[in-house]
Design goal:
Chain lengths: 426, 259
């Protein structure tokens, strides 16, 4: 071992280079680990971003529509009932006929031409007219969404010779482009529509709304229950075999796969209590079951982290246990509780399996307006679109993932900001 | 014990107090009277159970899961370990200054105002301001903090925090004040202040103080109790204990041979 004649100073000096190397090595490992993690993250975000970015723009075709009264409102009563059931598709077809009169002669050509414009064009005209019936009889230029195949063509996803278009269709599209009737615009439909069988009309709003209502239910149930349970267990419950048992169970519940909670929800909320299928209320209840243990554990940890001397100070002054908790322990634990809750909510937002179990996976066009309307949710939407055959749904899938990730980032940022804001040193 | 009955009424009486932390016994059959309007000093080597005994007197040991107290402790003749005792009221009557300064992570003002606030002792805002100011004044902190009452208490120095904790305890105007080494992080000037305060408070209150300083015990206390390894070895008038200790252990501790 060390030479007893060597002085301690020399021994220490001799060991310094080795220690420095060990430090440097450790430093390198740390940076390498972070580098690899960041690399994968960038790869992931880059891949999804590259795939999904297309969904945020939409090819549109300029149409000079004449809102012909004889087609839309032959009786001239402007009755909303008549106006909403009128044949707007015919107006769109007539407009196309004005641009390409030669295509109107054969029925087959006429169909092929109309196919180029999304059926959404008719719906959007209807919205315009219903909002302002005075438009009837006027001619105006509207930018109608192109069919998803046309959209894919202009985005360069499908080739011209892919066999998806007839020669005539390509000719018409070339002429439209030459006349400046084709543009690529921001796809606001993606954010204002519910789901649709037509990729160019499919939007994320329904799923966002479903997720919102489900998370609202989840928060309203799991936050108060979780915090109360944690406060009781941490501050008031006696330590005995029962509380140990409860504690072990809570820790185990936090590790139970989410699909099991889905099964439980299916059996209890749908089967036994007979609540509506596909409702965000039930989804939120199932997510709450899943989030509850997390919130309890995080809250207990935050309460536990408050130095006992603070509690002692309050109790020594004659505060009751409840006052000591409400006035001192709980405020100091709040940042931790909020962070944990938000992270629990973020996990619930991304959860798919339990929602599938309780039927929130149906194809739903209408944007849900309340807790009991049938709904899907963001991860469900990703799942549904990823499963759809149309090519245009591939970019929608990636875009939905981007939206989901954006929400997660916002939630986690909120957690960080809250923690910074409310953190107090002691 | 050597208390001459009838002369001074004991405020607190402890009889046969045993304290256990789990299986380890920290106090062994302690009998001690604390007389009203006196300062009683608890001295003894580190780990002998002084803090433990002090914490028995206002039942702070209840907060320690593994701690078990048996024996009989009475305040004005009432058993404070009676299940019917209201702990809030008990601790409002017996205040405590802890060994380590533990201010709340709030403003200086809020720290001092907290006790009077929860007990509803101040009738108005001005009343409260008055209580806060006089408490800080008596603890010798007023001059240093009067311009920054809204500053966080955790920003004070260790000695200032200790005095803040004293101000916080006396703001409730308890009958008994338990002080666990209140001067351990104070300079001689602040120490003198606190000692003067104790002398002044003694007129209206009863004080129990734990200290490691023989001089301090001799200066401020009327009675001294010497603890050793969980036993109460000797208790008596401070003068007697310091000049003519009965037990050889007391004698060697005071003269600096043990502890
Ligand atoms: N919370 C606790 N859990 C377990 N043992 C404890 C606890 N508090 C004190 N003890 C033990 O009880 C004995 C007495 O401790 P106490 O704190 O009363 O000593 P002290 O006389 O105040 O010492 P010091 O002068 O160092 O403050 C010690 O042996 C200590 O280890
Ligand atoms: Mg001590």
């Amino acid at each position: 071992m060390t030479d007893p004649r060597q002085s301690p100073t020399e021994t220490i000096l001799a060991s310094l280079p080795r220690r420095r190397r060990a430090e440097a090595r450790f430093h390198f490992y740390g940076i390498a680990a972070i580098g690899i993690a960041l690399g994968f993250l960038i790869l992931l975000i880059g891949a999804i971003g590259h795939q999904g970015i297309g969904a945020f723009s939409q090819t549109e075709i300029a149409l000079d529509v004449t809102l012909d009264e004889s087609v839309l409102d032959p009786s001239g009563t402007r009755d909303p009932e008549t106006l909403s059931t009128a044949n707007y598709r015919a107006v769109v077809r007539a407009t196309l006929g004005e641009i390409f009169p030669e295509a109107m002669r054969k029925r087959r050509d006429r169909r092929k031409l109309t196919e180029l414009v999304s059926i959404g064009a008719g719906f959007e005209l209807r919205e315009l007219v219903l909002a302002d019936p005075g438009l009837i009889g006027r001619t105006m230029r509207v930018w109608a969404p192109a069919d998803d195949e046309v959209d894919m063509l202009f985005k360069g996803v499908t080739a011209r010779d892919s066999g998806r278009f007839t020669g005539k269709q390509l000719e018409w599209l070339d002429r439209l482009e030459a006349e400046g009737r084709i543009r690529s615009a921001f796809n606001w439909r993606f954010f204002s529509n519910g789901d649709s069988r037509e990729p160019e009309l499919a939007g994320i709003l329904g799923a966002m709304s479903g997720s919102f209502f489900a998370l609202l239910t989840c928060l309203a149930l799991s936050f108060p229950l979780g915090v109360m349970a944690a406060i009781y267990l941490e501050e008031f419950a006696p330590r005995n075999r029962w509380t140990d048992l409860v504690e072990i169970n809570i820790n185990n519940l936090a590790a139970v796969p989410s699909i099991v909670f889905g099964l439980l929800g299916l059996a209890v909320f749908l089967g036994f209590m007979g609540l509506a299928r596909s409702a965000p209320l039930v989804g939120g209840m199932v997510l709450a079951l899943m989030t509850l243990p997390t919130i309890i554990i995080v809250t207990r940890a935050s309460l536990h982290a408050v130095p006992p001397s603070i509690r002692e100070a309050a109790i020594g002054l004659g505060a009751s246990r409840m006052q000591a908790m409400l006035h001192h322990t709980l405020p100091l634990a709040t940042p931790g509780i909020m962070t944990g809750t938000i992270i629990g909510m973020a996990r619930a937002l991304g959860e798919l399996a339990p929602l599938i179990m309780i039927g929130m996976v149906a194809f739903i066009v209408d944007v849900p307006q309340g807790l009991l309307d049938p709904a899907s949710a963001l991860p469900v939407q990703v799942y549904i679109w990823a499963d759809s055959p149309e090519r245009a749904f591939a970019e929608k899938t990636a875009a939905a993932i981007i939206v989901l990730l954006a929400f997660l980032v916002v939630m986690n940022l909120t957690a960080v900001i809250l923690r910074r804001r409310f953190e107090r040193r002691w | 014990m050597d208390m001459s009955p009838g002369t001074i009424r004991p405020k607190l009486t402890a009889r046969g107090v045993n304290v256990f932390y789990g299986d380890a016994q920290a106090l062994n059959r302690v009998d001690l009277d604390i007389r009203a309007h006196e300062v009683t000093a608890l001295i003894g080597p580190s780990g002998c159970g002084k803090s433990t005994f002090l914490r028995c007197l206002n039942r702070m040991n209840d907060l320690i899961e593994i701690c078990r107290v048996d024996g009989d402790i009475r305040l004005d003749g009432e058993d404070i370990y009676d299940p019917a005792v209201n702990l809030v009221y008990l601790r409002a009557r017996i205040g405590m200054v802890f060994q380590k300064p533990n201010p709340f992570p709030k403003s200086i003002y809020d720290n001092v105002a907290y006790g009077p606030k929860i007990h509803g002792l101040a009738r108005s805002r001005a009343d409260m301001d008055e209580t806060v100011a006089s408490s800080l004044e008596r603890a010798g902190l007023w001059e240093e903090v009067k311009d920054r009452l809204d500053a966080p208490a955790t920003g004070l120095s260790g000695g200032q925090q200790q005095r803040l904790c004293i101000a916080r305890a006396i703001a409730v105007r308890p009958e008994v004040i338990l002080m666990d080494e209140p001067c351990s992080s104070l300079d001689p000037i602040a120490t003198a202040r606190i000692e003067a305060l104790m002398d002044e408070l003694r007129q209206n209150f009863t004080i129990v103080i734990v200290t490691h300083s023989m001089q301090q015990a001799a200066r401020v206390s009327q009675r001294t109790a010497f603890f050793h390894l969980g036993d109460l070895v000797e208790v008596g008038d401070t003068d007697t204990v310091f000049t003519q200790p009965v037990d050889p252990r007391t004698e060697s501790y005071i003269s600096g041979r043990i502890g």
